[in-house]
Fold this protein.
Amino acid sequence: MKKRFTRLLAMGIASLMAVSLAACGSSSSGSAGQTAGADSTVAANAGNGNVKTIKFFHRFPDDPANSFIEEKIAEYEAAHSDIDIVVTSAQNQPFKEKIKTVVGTPEEPDIYYSWAGEFSERFIRENLILDLTPYLEADSEWADSLIESQMVNYTTDDGMVYGIPFRLDGKVFAYNRDIFDELGLEVPTTWDEFLAVLDAIKADGTYTPLAEGNQDQWPGAHYIGTLNQMLVADDVRAADFNPKTGAFTDPGYVEALDKYQQLVPYMNIGVNGMTHDMARQLFTTGQAAMCYIELVEITNLYQETEGTEFNWGMFVFPTVEGAGNPNILTGEPEGFVVSANTAYPDECVEFLKWFLGPEVGAQQAEVVGWFNASKGVADNLEDEGLREAYDLIMNAEAMGPWFDASLYSTVCEEYLQQISNVTNGDISSADAMAKIQATALEAQTLAAE
Amino acid sequence: MKKKKVKKSLYLYIVPGLFMVMAFVYVPIITNIVYSFFRLSSYSSSMKFVAFNNYRRLFTNDTFPVMMRNNIYYCIISLIVQVGFGTVIALVLESKLVGKLNSFYRNVYFIPSLISLTAVGLMFNFIYNPTAGMLNGFLKTIGQPDLQQIWLGDKKLAIFCIIAMSQWQYTGYIAMLMIVAFQNVSMDYVEAAIIDGAGPIRRAISVYIPLAKEQLLVCSVITVIGAFKLFTEVYTTTSGGPGDASQVLGLFLYQNAFLHDDMGMAAATGVLIFVITVTLSIIQLRITRSGQD
């Protein structure tokens, strides 16, 4: 009997070890990253021991952005022999997870990418991000060179500037001009006109009116974010974005889901079964007439349509009448923050001044097709699409935050799931909103803890 | 029974190993249990004691029954297909039916389990793609367009699509493990059975399977544990969607830890997975009375 028990115990422990080992394995699979950057300057300086190592973590591992960043960093290192910048990068989703595991630890990067709003503010609450306000006050030339409207998002309510934009963005409908010409359609400016255009394309039957892929759940959130801006008053949304007061009881939120649901029949089949990139390819291959894209995706449009006569244009989300503000352009600048724990805060800021400044910015606009927040970076651009994109951002009354990045974590999860369910027609807008309200209520107590 | 005397100094040799196991397995498990009573995030320095609140939130979560159901589906289907069907494949491959092609088939079945899970996930994303995917394309080609589905985007089908992917990958692996066990069965028994007039099926049921019982148990323990720590397959395809339709415990744990800044909830989920797998393993061992011949 005793022997049997011992064996049982041994087997139990063995299986327990299997579980824990497996757990180790799975957590590392999310951290697909890549390292680059050790170079000749390090070797040159290895002797004098004064090299300051700055760890730099970004989320743009695809070309042309990746090689542009590496090139610029090598340039900076060549000009500053005492600085060694070690670059790591990860794709969007792994980045979100990886950054949270390193912030606050000795492995923390000195400079890292971070979304504006709640994503960064959770770190600010723990005093993990460097306050850049004193640096901007000390260097008025630098402060003046940045576009004010784009700095708002990286400023907290009490005026602390914590990040500098690397790329500006905005959400627009890209449309296929050839399809519009063929069917004799005009660019819509109101919701009714938009529905009429969608109806006309659908009635013709040759093309999918709207390309959309919501497998990763954020693309749907971008529609809802924009609709909420038009249908819910600014102050109500601001209160709801604060996890301690968020209730999401405004009827505008239900209406936004309703409006979105109205669009679903015009989308390609299997919206929840494909990623946004796959859906965009329906658009770039001429199968779909429109796609709701980010301005930073113009680079992808060019890549995907290289060598073809692809004739496209863009228009902002058609106006929906409601309690909100129709002149907000959805899309937030995305940029870099400096760790509060860095050993070299001055050096980090000095590097960012140059890296996110007008000189590199102009090259970046040319090479990558992304604009930073320095004034005048698009002055010498020849590409029409990019110029139009830049003007759209510059002329926007205000920028709307990325909806998913501004929600408290649990509310975000629930909201994205419900948008996914609404897309599939599995739930009514009112029921979906009721579930989100319940989660928001629970989040109020969680946030207060 | 005479006891062999063991030199005390010999125990010293297990100290390094014991230390490693303690440091990397048992200490983390205990820390995890402690964390499950706190509210904390991966980057915050403060933690707040919340008693059983994490467990209450876990069990009352709307997603909880969905996750349990999905993990149980995975477990049952895997036991039937991977262990059941895998054993049948092993028996067939060990029989004289396949002749010289034996090793060829063995490789064919085994190769899928060598491919990285992430790669398999990406590959199946393409296969299941509703507009450009291979599966819908195939259904159209064979003249059955009505059978076309949205697969991973369909609330009812998503989890089964993921389960199917795993069966494709691991049935051959279990078959391989069983082949090894069947090869260890002494030919004396097999020949005795043949002399007694037992046909191939009779031999499988009365000779091969009883003698490979231990291996069959190991295979089912691996499969059951695998079912409850399911993660990568879901992570690389649906991330739990659409809605929460394909959510599973492992992914829920991960998302709480690294997306929702809720390490305490993740720890509580980890404890639950641990309790489930240990309990199921013990039950399985009891049922088969392992080690009692």
